Amino acid sequence: MSTTMGPDARGEFVGADGQSFGGRFMPEALIAELDELTRVWEEAMADPAFTGEFERMLREYAGVPSMLYEAARFSEIAGARILLKREDLNHTGAHKIRNVLGQALLAKRMGKTRLIAETGAGQHGVATATAAAYLGLECVVYMGKVDTERQALNVARMNLLGAEVVAVDSGSMTLKDAINEAIRDWVASVEHTAYCFGTAAGPHPFPAMVRDFCRGIGDEARAQVLELTGRLPDIVTACVGGGSNAIGMFTAFLGDADVRIVGFEAGGDGVETPRHAATIHAGEVGVLHGARTFVLQDADGQTVESHSISAGLDYPGVGPQHAFLAHSGRADYQPVTDTEAMDALAVLARSEGIICAIESAHALAGTLRLAAENPGCTILVNLSGRGDKDMGTAIEWFGLGSPDGAAP
Amino acid sequence: MTAFGTEHAFAKTRAEGRAALVGYLPAGFPDVAGSIEAMTVMVEAGCDIIEVGLPYSDPVMDGPTIQAAAQQALEGGVRTSDVLRTVEAVAATGAPTLIMTYWNPVDRYGVRRFAADLANAGGAGLITPDLIPDSGADWITAADEHGLDKVFLVAPSSTDARLAMTTAHCRGFVYATAVMGVTGARASTSDLAGPLVARAKLTTDLPIGVGLGVSNGAQAAEVAAYADAVIVGSAFVRALLDNPDRAAGLEALRVLTEDLAAGVRGTR
Prior knowledge:
heterodimer, A: alpha/beta, Rossmann fold, 6-stranded mixed β-sheet, 4-stranded parallel β-sheet, B: alpha/beta, TIM Barrel, 9-stranded parallel β-sheet, 12 helices, globular
């Protein structure tokens, strides 16, 4: 399934200079399960009964394939031809439904009865709770205590969907600590529990498995762009936190040498400040959550807290294949600040009537930058999620919500 | 093998016909000097081997007790260099002293440099809860160069093939995790540990230590009946957390160590 793009049998993406990314840095207690998961996943992806069921679920339940939309008014502002892959229109409002349906279906195939997940803003938690309800699985979602307070609405959604939400009060009480707690649960529950990991990071096989469940984004978009324009786009863009939407978009284009691939990381207050989540741009190679990748860390290898206005990008690590693609030069990764992202969010809302997620707004802001550098080119953007969940942030940022409120 | 290797401790406990008592505390908890003092008390009161924990921001194998101690140590500003200094001080008591560490701090320090500095500090080796031999080629090379112990973990879920591979890469002893779960005291000892030790012993002549969940002398005696070492961590941390007064904390540690030491000697 994934032999041409890696990883190798050890789960490593190895650069021409021997630098390895990915692999497995995990407790021995989980290795047998990771081996079994790898085996079942590889078998399932070669089984038409599994892939057919996955495609049926995506089509009938999730609203996939999502459409490709030519953003004419936004294009005018950008000075380039901008095509949006509308993952924001999927069920639960983002690309993440693809990953969770794949992993939940795999969990059923392995005879698991319980799903656990970590979540930052709550989007992956809501998607996992949705898949669990849809497939009749028990569901527990770990969420940093700080995030449960910031995202009370998503906690309520998960509860309504029948999931238990556990507020994690260790460490920095955010996404990375939620992952730690989910791993701790999994070590003790692995016999009947599947860990539905939320992004293309973590130990092998998660980076490759999540990529393959999300790669429909790029496969569909590539065909849609060819049909619409008769040729491939000049540039493909996406936002990158852990990187599931980005790797899902990029994979179809990795072999197209003429297509430039650019990911946009959360620059927070700016990469010159300590408050950002630009892991590839400003991190260093290390080990976090089971994989070798770029990590925001101090001189002693302690993880440094990240910051982004977008909870979905607020992670001090990044998927190992992105680290590999950056290292090899095939893809290019640039930071986008909170301000740039929020400006782009407003531009899209005003020009197209689409309120996107703040995560996706990072891709749009970066796209505006690329368009200015390459006027007239065609840029395919993954609009990975919708912005309903971000209205609280938008109200605060723009000062919205009162009748005489300021316009952005 | 250095003079500080665990080999000598196990030769002694085998000659005495008993299991070794291995005690864990994180460096820098409650502070660097306090942790050295505490581990010295543990040696005096009967620990045969000391594990110095290297506090890490993302300890996925640790339960709430050790997490709390590690976090307190990090908030107190403990550095990797302090951990090595702690090893030096504890090893000077004569007890073999290992570091238990998640992998990223060692990776960041530089594996070869870490091995050299650990050996210079008189450290016996490393216990690596999130480094499996499959991913540990650099460490294996560096440890071999300096004659350091390589203590990898085996678990009840380890297949026979993985058990054989893992124990073949160990030096010093093998760390058997008694339960499927994280560190922390448990009310009863695990029924998974005995069979795991038996399976591990089919693959190696190295001593097998059992950790996770032991918190008193009675449990230590139970585990000592089938294991070569009883490894205790959270219970020592708990003794200090429950007794913030320094003198009271050290006294609690002494009492607990003596109880555990009697447990491994069957004289309790």
